[in-house]
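Researcher: Here's the sequence for the chain we discussed earlier.
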Amino acid sequence: MPSFTRPNPSTWLPLTTLGLSLGYSITVLTRLPWWSLFLLAAIWVGIGIRLGIGHRRHHRYRKAWPWSLLPLCLWGIYLYLADSFGNVDLGAVFFHLQAGMADHGGTGRMVTAALYTFCMLGMLITSTWLTRNDWRWRRFEPLLAVLLLVSNPLILGLGQRSAVVVTDDGSWLDRRYVEPDITAQQNPPNLLLLYLESIERTYAAPVFGDAYADLEAVGERGVVFEGVRQVDNTGWTMAGKIASQCGTPLMPAGLLHDRQFEPLSTVVPGIDCLGDMLSEQGYRLSYLGGASTEFAGKGLFYHGHGFDHVYGLQKLKPRLENPDYVNDWGLYDDSLYDFTVKEIERLNAQDDSPWGVVNLTIAGHAPDGHPAQRCIERQGEWDGEDILYSVECSAWLARDLVERLEAKGYLDNTVVAIVSDHLSMRVSEWDTLETLPRENTFILLGDDLQPRRITRNASMMDVFPTLLDAMGYLPDNAAAGLGVSLLRDKSQTLLERHDMQTINSRLHAENALQQRLWEGLAPQGHGNQTPPLPQQTLETPGDQAK
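Model: Thanks. This is the structure I predict for it:
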């Protein structure tokens, strides 16, 4: 048995560095409280002393480089992403790398990234010191490198996505894709589509108090959809928008596509989305968002899919009475909603053709939110971290906007949709959220919509045909894209026919739908691809079993 010997002073630093890094990693990957990292670090230091790691009696110096340097860096990247966003989505990473991350609002995360980099340098130096000075660590270290590689979720995810290129059956989802098709109607309604950043319906749970109460009040006057879940590739802002406006997950073009060294010049050009459909019907379409339209391809998406006007930070900030009233991401929501009212006033004053306005807020953005000044005046001082404060702010401002527009008569013959763009990422209530069945917000208001609650096992892809249906443009078979109208009981959603695991596994083994989205930019797989069908494939016993 090794004896418990006091290490010389030079070993305390590497042991403590390893212990703190290990403790922090475990707290990020589990639900342990942050202070437990010190307990875990102390346990590791105790083990290190017991085993004499780095002790002078095991000193056999050799100038060698550790095998684990790259695996440690990859784990550092994964932990940073997990700490920032909760659930790491490689699709989001790939898409943002190609669509652009200019003018992002993650100033706070940049500081965190710098701290991570500094800590990783400490880990790399520690690993190098132990490899060169402790012969036992030098023998064990190659095995450690292998363990770090095979256990890293980044490596597992990259392996899954690489398999897409060579999969034998990569058209399971594409066979179920329905080209959206609508016909003109008399007196078409306007559309106001409000995306509330990260304000998921889960916040309606009693454990969160009254944070969601204003949206509950709005929902009492319309149709509230319960059970709208989040499948893979729909869990970040652009992915949630494309799922709910195009009826398909956002499957990134990928780092292997034919233009991998160039930024994207268009976003999902191969499919028709809500803007394309409404533009063909004569709608005048506007998008307003407080953040930059240069970030994550938002401007590319809306300009390429039928929108006449696209307003973001660059165009709206000069119009502010106080140009300094902005946050890291852009405009506060009270300013954004004031511009939204003005835009709807402009559209109403022009002519009798229908209009559509899409809006994206910022208040609920992780990790802390960005509550507006109007909310602070109403709710009192904000501690800078409580996400429920920001949720309440976002919900109240959305309700206030609807009531303001109603008072002006601008919502006559108008369908109003209030949707969360995706589930919340890591926030102050993350541990509580993760214990609950999570679902997105989806509320519809309209002259012909009777107030009720509809509970379906659905996804954000079902929002697209449901919006068309609510506006009177019922697609064939009540289907569009991969979704079906939730207003039609006889139409089954993908999640009602298949479980979440099946859908997600197909998303990671699909290439035909990816090629459809990007018009051949994605890499070609092996084998013949099934031609796209204009209608969804009927489910067969074989499909149910797969």
